[in-house]
Write a structure and sequence with these properties.
The chain is about 45% helix and about 20% strand. Helix 23 crosses helix 24. The structure holds adenosine-5'-diphosphate, aspartic acid and magnesium ion (MG).
């Protein structure tokens, strides 16, 4: 014989029940079958809700009752042929009437005992099994209905009854031995005590009903038919990449279900294991798929971790005090106080030491636990030997499970590294004595991130997902998005990096998509985006709480630079081409560096100096490998280089500056370039990265601009002075020419002192031939003494700046 159990979703409505009937028609050709059914999906919750409403004198209970009634009547209407419809409806209505009367009773007496809870919820399975058996009989004449309450006997722990296994097993085997019908339908979940009161086996208990029947009849297989294709490597509703586990041992399945894999009710495994009956989990909506086979064997020894499960809403109880040291019996008293009050201990942590014990329980029990434990230890608390019980809530457990973990080293190291890297704070740790599971207590809010990170670590080709949030999509930002789009495939095959742009914003609007924004149409999407503020953008990024999140600042905005600290504090890495943060007050710059270290989040800004040229990266490599910078000489302004390369006898200074602006080489306000402030910021950043504590005011800035230009109030005024002071500028040019020199705007750093100024450069100097808008940097160090380390190339322009940002993203991805 085979036992098949169909869960709530599988029998949620007439359409689904028809699918179940098809499966049963097929199976019954080959085997005798017992069919255990749940209530129509969601009915149990509705029944409890109706009961609670009625007890609280809320007349809405009638609406809820009506909802329950309608669902069942509709199922009959759609499933049962006309000839029998009336008689089936009559039966169903009679049961509904009985339910209604109990609810009315609750409304009057306002007392909802667990005994009544069981009475009420039993209607779910009793109705579903009746309707399904009638529907089945239309094609399978031999199908009958048997009330499980006549077979399964329990104690009187209503809502979570304990089965009297001997008696139950005898009842079941006697019934099936004498029964000649090929197909027997039974309600799951329901049972009775010695007094014939209805009891139930706990939420999700229909699985257990089926296991009891399978065990007593020594069935060849117990099939659990549900809405997913087996037991998955993690809850498929939360982890997209999860996949069904093909084969798994009883112990592993038990462990996964104990730690929250709801697909199998934990007590289900034991009866099957005792009789060595295989359990097969199958999908009602995809019956051709393999599903998961649970047996004694444990194949696939090379795979130490089989699955990851989690439980939400856990509370951590800590009992501690010096009075506990050396005195035996404290933990015994704690556990017995909890167990006599039916409080389930889900986890006991290794933090238990002589003067503290720490256990995890369900949050729903936390209040009661606090009360009973403080009561138990009232004397010791009054004598200050121990502290009142500490209760922490809003926690969750994630557990990594596998039979072969014990023979593989380093699993826990990998687990906690994956959590740590994603800034998932671990409150407590427990390892089962069997070494079949390692569990960590974390915050509820981190569940999804933790599961994804662990799943990625143990089950996926190590493709790393980077989640980007980009602010500023002008010229550079737009080109960067285009570069990312074109390079995505290459990165995922060759570097195992999956770059996902999750958020994009300009100064007005923002858009988000957790799966990654379609980069073919981001402009159109952004136009329709939500209004943005710095705060709303930050809040959204924070709420996503994704692993490997990166905030990318492609603006020159000071307010945005001021938000980096908020991101870093959330362990969100920051990549900036905006120079403001690194060239602001030294203490602010240092603070960002500290936050980056403390919160394990990178802060990269290669494009602050020389656009895409690897200047900061090279400097960092020198310093990290133990070298020391003695001097830096550099031309760091692409715009000034362009201007001084093109300005001569024929073209006036004014015209060249205009041209540079029109071609996009200068800032919108050219004074930022011509005043030297931009170059000063860059040399400041290099000096700081070289380990020197400098501020902008420490950089000597000898301007080449005449007084009139410096006094100009507006950009237009400024341009006018370039005309009126033409003589001043042509003098600069003439002097250089007479000396056979080129004019270069040079930044220098020598032993702790930095300056920026216009210089005449002679033919012998490496700066002399610097063309167009190129940059050049010479690093003199303790190792590079005679010949400097030279970096030279295009130091401005949107393409190369975008590519510098891209480089930072990849650096971060490969960390
Ligand atoms: P049924 O009503 O059929 O008994 P349940 O809702 O009790 O179904 O169990 C199936 C659900 O269990 C799935 O839809 C899924 O959301 C959840 N689940 C949690 N963890 C896992 C897991 N590791 N594998 C499969 N499903 C899981
Ligand atoms: N109907 C019950 C519940 O929802 C039992 C079950 O479906 O297994 O918990
Ligand atoms: Mg279930």
């Amino acid at each position: 014989m085979k036992v098949l159990k169909f869960g709530g979703t599988s029998v949620a409505n007439a359409e689904n029940i028809s699918k179940v009937i098809k499966i049963l028609e097929n199976e019954s050709k080959k085997h005798n079958i017992a069919v255990v059914v749940s209530a129509l999906g969601g009915t149990t919750d509705l029944l409890i809700e109706a009961g609670n409403l009625a007890t609280n004198k809320d007349e809405k209970y009638i609406d809820v009752f009506q909802q329950i009634a309608n669902r069942h009547i509709l199922a009959v209407e759609e499933l049962i042929k006309d000839s029998k419809k009336q008689s089936v409806l009559k039966q169903v209505n009679a049961q509904l009437e009985e339910l209604k009367q109990i609810l009315q009773g609750l409304y009057l007496i306002n007392e909802f005992s667990n005994k009544t809870v069981d009475k009420i919820v039993s209607f779910g399975e009793l109705l579903s099994s009746y309707i399904i058996s009638e529907a089945l009989q239309q094609t399978l004449k031999s199908a009958t209905l048997k009330d499980s309450r006549e077979l399964i006997i329990t104690d009187s722990t209503f809502t979570n009854a304990v089965v009297k296994t001997k008696e139950t097993s005898a009842n079941i085997s006697t019934f099936f031995n004498n029964n000649k019908d090929k197909v027997v339908v039974l309600p799951g979940f329901v049972s009775r005590n010695k007094n014939n009161d209805t009891t139930t086996l706990g939420r999700g208990g229909s699985d257990y009903t089926a296991a009891l029947i399978a065990s007593a009849t020594k069935a060849e297989v117990l099939e659990i038919w549900t809405d997913v294709s087996g037991m998955y490597t993690a809850n498929p509703k939360l982890v997209k990449q999860a996949s069904p586990i093909r084969e798994i041992s009883y112990e592993e399945a038990m462990e996964l279900s104990h730690f929250g894999a709801k697909v199998l009710y934990p007590p289900t495994v034991q009866p099957a294991l005792q009789k060595n009956i295989p359990i097969l989990i199958k999908n009602t909506f995809a019956p051709a798929e393999d599903g998961t086979l649970i047996t004694k064997k444990n194949k696939n020894k090379s795979q130490p971790v089989k699955g990851i499960s989690h439980i939400e809403n856990i509370a951590l109880l800590t009992l501690e005090g010096n009075g506990m040291v050396g005195i035996p019996g404290f933990s015994k008293r704690l556990f017995s106080a909890l167990s006599t009050n039916h409080i389930n201990v889900v986890l006991i942590t290794q933090a238990s030491s002589e003067h503290s014990i720490c256990v995890g329980i369900y949050s729903a029990d936390a209040k009661k636990a606090k009360h009973v434990v403080d009561e138990e230890f009232v004397y010791e608390i009054s004598k200050k030997k121990i502290k009142p019980l500490m209760v922490e809530e809003s926690l969750a457990i994630v557990a990594v499970v596998g039979d072969n973990m014990k023979s593989h080293q380093g699993i826990s190291g990998r687990m906690f590294r994956a959590l740590g890297k994603n800034n998932v704070n671990v409150r407590a740790i427990a390892q089962g004595a069997s070494e079949r599971n390692i569990s960590a207590v974390i915050s509820n809010k981190d569940i999804k991130k933790a599961l994804t990170a662990l799943h990625n670590r143990f089950f996926e080709k190590q493709v790393k997902i980077l989640n980007l949030f980009i602010v500023g999509v002008g010229n550079v930002g737009a080109i960067l998005l285009d570069q990312i789009k074109k390079q995505q495939d290459h990165l995922s095959t060759n570097l195992l990096l999956n770059i996902r742009v999750v958020g994009i914003s300009n100064s007005k609007k923002m858009i988000f998509d957790e799966e990654g924004i379609d980069l073919n149409s981001w402009q159109a999407q952004l136009q329709k985006g939500k209004k943005r503020t710095h705060q709303s953008f930050f809040n959204t990024v924070k709420k996503f709480n994704l692993s490997n999140s990166i905030f990318l600042d492609v603006t020159a905005n000071e307010d945005i630079a001021n938000t980096y600290k908020d991101y870093l504090k959330e362990s969100i890495s920051v990549i900036a081409c905006n120079k403001i943060a690194c060239s602001s007050k030294y203490s602010d710059y240092q603070k960002l560096k500290d936050l980056s270290r403390r919160y394990n989040a990178s802060f990269l800004f290669e494009t602050n100096v020389g656009a895409g040229l690897p200047i900061i990266n090279t400097l960092n490599n020198l310093i990290n490998s133990g070298d020391r910078i003695t001097s830096i000489q550099a031309v760091l302004s692409g715009s000034l280089n362009f201007i001084f390369n093109n300005f001569n006898d024929e073209h006036s200074f004014h015209d060249i500056v205009k041209q540079a602006q029109e071609e996009g080489y200068t800032e919108p306000d050219p004074r930022i370039d011509l005043s030297g402030i931009d170059v000063a910021r860059k040399i400041l950043i290099l000096a700081r990265e070289a380990g020197y504590k400098l501020d902008l005011k420490d950089i000597k800035n000898k301007t080449f601009l005449p007084k009139a230009s410096l006094k100009a109030k507006t950009v237009d005024d400024f341009y006018n002075t370039l005309k009126t002071e033409a003589l001043h500028f042509s003098e600069l040019y003439k002097s250089a020419k007479t000396n056979n020199c080129q004019l270069k705007y040079v930044a220098e750093f020598n032993n702790g002192k930095a300056s920026v100024r216009l210089k005449e450069i002679d033919k012998e100097h490496p700066f002399y031939n610097l063309e167009g808008k190129d940059n050049i940097v010479l690093f003199f160090t303790e190792r590079y003494t005679e010949q400097p380390l030279i970096i030279k190339g295009a130091g401005a322009g949107a393409e190369v700046t975008a590519s510098g940002l891209f480089g930072d993203i990849i650096t971060l991805g490969r960390n």
